[in-house]
Amino acid sequence: MSEKRFGVAVFGAGWVSTEHIRAYVKNPHCEVVAVGSRKAESAREKATLGAVPDARIYTRFEELLKDKRVDVVSITTPTDLHAEQVIQAAEAGKHMVIEKAIALNLEDLKAMRDAVRKAKVKTVVSFVLHWNPSLANTKALLDAGAIGDIFYGECDYWHGVSDWYAGWEWARTKRAGGSSFLFAGCHGVDAIRWFCGDIAEVSAFTGGWDKRFEYPPTIVAAVKFASGAIGKISSSLDIVAPYQFNVDLLGTEGAIRDNLLYSKKLLPGQSGFATIPCLLPDSGDVEHHPFEGEINHFIDCLLNDVESEVNLEDAVKTHEVCLAADLSAANGGETVKLPLIEG
Q1: Which fold has domain 6-128+291-311?
Q2: Do residues 150 and 229 touch, judged by C-beta distance below 8 A?
Q3: Which residues pair with 337 in a beta bridge?
Q4: Please, are residues 49 and 23 in contact by the beta-carbon 8 Å criterion?
Q5: 0.90 exceeded by the pTM?
Q6: What CATH architecture applies to the domain 130-282+318-337?
Q7: What three-state secondary structure class fits 334?
Q8: pLDDT, tens only, 111-149
């Protein structure tokens, strides 16, 4: 095994940054050398919580990028800051883990993609549910042909967000939160793309009751996949119920509903759904999310000089779907065809 070690910096002192730091600390190929935030006291607090009290503290991202010890940067700032910071980090030759959403408009998405392509740095976008056991099981079953060819797929992200959330004041705004899909529901969009492939058409409608959001907190989109399959994606930030992440996949040889499997191919004598015991994506608490798996995957990519399937290039496609759904809803549900960005 390689003995190479990467110097890591985490910039942004929000809820999720502590989990990034802790995941890096557990990886033997990493040393967290810097923690940053616009407020020094916030960065110091995160360094202490993450058990890296000797990390250098930065209040300016530009100065952090000049630190020659830094090979990898986790960008955990509010979404509206991501585009500029990703471009700066790419130009500085830093590899990146980028919290979602990565951007709020097509222009920023394209600029980020082009900067990363030009710099040839490696990226992972924090669609952390790729490392959730239930979703990982589902992907393995699909790859094994357990339910045949998918003809229908749906995913729902329902998570009531209110002023209990530390980032509430920016998350509820169009400027920084963007929309229901962009703020959080993009996890569902990413998951359904992972399972069913690229999306070719979107038609969406919005609703919801919580008027404190500057955008409609609930949205539902009917989609057509490039494969010809159809489906549905929804996101609700004003659900009055516990967190729900629902996955339903219908195939020519069976079906998957979350951690329930019916497979004529693998289990020909099956008379009902079989339960696969595993950890479900049933909480919005970042401590519940598998950041250790995500970070270990990214470091493995760096050590082996390979691209991640969860990189920025792929995340651009997920964000295009989110923006297409928002555009459709703003125009009465008219169909929007993808991709939106050429090249």
Answers
A1: Rossmann fold (3.40.50)
A2: yes
A3: 201
A4: no
A5: yes
A6: 2-Layer Sandwich (3.30)
A7: coil
A8: 999 999 999 999 999 999 999 999 999 999 999 999 999
Q: Of how many residues is the chain composed? A: 343
SS3 306: coil
CA dihedral angle for residue 331, residue 335, residue 336, residue 338, rounded to 10 degrees: 170
Q: Which residue intervals of the chain are DSSP H helices? A: 17-26, 40-49, 61-65, 82-91, 106-119, 133-143, 168-171, 180, 186-196, 291-304, 312-330
Place of tokens 């993009």: 186
SS3 category, 321: helix
Helices (H), 211-311: 291-304
What is the residue extent of each domain of the chain? 6-128+291-311, 130-282+318-337
Token pair of 261 as six digits? 């499997």
For helices 106-119 and 312-330, the axis angle rounded to 10 degrees is 170
Q: How far is residue 243 CA from its own chain's centroid?
A: 17
- Mean pLDDT across the stretch 78-83? 95
Angle of helix 186-196 relative to helix 312-330, nearest 10 degrees, comes to 110
By C-alpha distance, which of 126, 130, 128 is closest to 139? 130
> How far apart, in whole angstroms, are the C-alpha atoms of residue 32 and residue 88?
20
Please state, in angstroms and rounded to a whole number, the distance separating the CA atoms of residues 203 and 224.
9
